[in-house]
Amino acid sequence: MSAEAPRSPAGSDPVLFDRLIAMASGAWVTQMIHVAAELGLADQLAGGEREVNDLAAACGAEADGLFRLLRGLASLGIFQESSPRHFALTPLAELLRSDHPQSLRQFARMLGDEHYLSWNDLLHSVRTGEGAFHHRYGESVFAWYQKNPRRAEIFDGAMGDFSRLQIEAVLAAYDFSGIDHLVDVGGGRGLLLQRVLTQHGHLRGTLFDQPQVVAPVVVPAALEGRMQVHGGDFFREVPAGADAYLLKHIIHDWNDGACLTILGHIRSAMAPGGRVLLVEQVIPEGNDPFPGKLLDLNMLVMTEGGRERTPAEYASLLGRAGLELQRIVPTPAPVSVVEAVAAG
Ligand SMILES: C[S@@+](CC[C@H](N)C(=O)[O-])C[C@H]1O[C@@H](n2cnc3c(N)ncnc32)[C@H](O)[C@@H]1O
User: Fold this and answer.
1) Which atom of ligand 1 is closest in space to residue 163's alpha carbon?
2) Per-residue CA distances from 337 to 23, 209, 277 (Å)
3) pTM of model > 0.85
4) Which residues are catalytic?
5) Which of 285, 299, 304, 341 is the most buried (most CB within 10 A)?
């Protein structure tokens, strides 16, 4: 047998074969990164390399299992075995540190738990169109988070992790100068609003989200008098009278009927001449890779009818809410700003 003999069955391309194996076993990688994040391994290594027994004792793990986890992760470039049985951070592992400015630790913690278990039922969602989370847990994800504050805390942190670069991209691409009062609808802990207000000294802003989400939010001293926090339910009402309503990753959580309720409340509440700004991963035509095409499946799994939408789907949805799509402003990140005004 020659040294070049393919490792895959006759006639198939070994590169494609290995590629599909790596993709099909992607769930292993999700769990490996999740466990590293849960154990706080990157934080433990922040001061430099450590021997695996010492690390295992520090993070409550069994030394051989931890060694095998780190060896596997190091094979993917996450951590490295710097000397025998000693591990250190790599640039990818740095992103799992809690104190990194682009930390993805909470995001990795979120993906490996209720999201992961729900994705196990993707087949159910594809067969029936029903959200797998609801199928497994018997209620919507936001109702479940209300009863599971420890997981909700991780979800809120994960939203922050996921958002940080997107926020900078929105600030770079969208001109907020013509706005006086901005409401961030479903704004979570207020990261985006705080950045917009910090960047644009003329603006006033209201953070609006569920009461238990905004309860811990403290307005920074520098924004006092310009930033308000309002707890409520966007299926009942939104704060009235603002000239811009920003919804980042809100519309993608809901089916068209629910979106029309939220957008209808905004349409009634907004000041004359006001605008609606949806920050979403707008799905392009064609087969090219685009992160929103996978995020869309996460919406299929985790929500009841949420989805990423195409430009035509946004135009139609907004039109049915009495709004008119003005333009879609791309940003350096995969999110765009979908801008709409009241229909004439
Ligand atoms: C996917 S997260 C997006 C958070 C934030 N805009 C971001 O992009 O990071 C959805 C947000 O909608 C909020 N939310 C869900 N149901 C709500 C309701 N009925 N009223 C107000 N906010 C709600 C959640 O608490 C959560 O903060």
Assistant:
1) 9
2) 31, 20, 6
3) yes
4) 252
5) 299
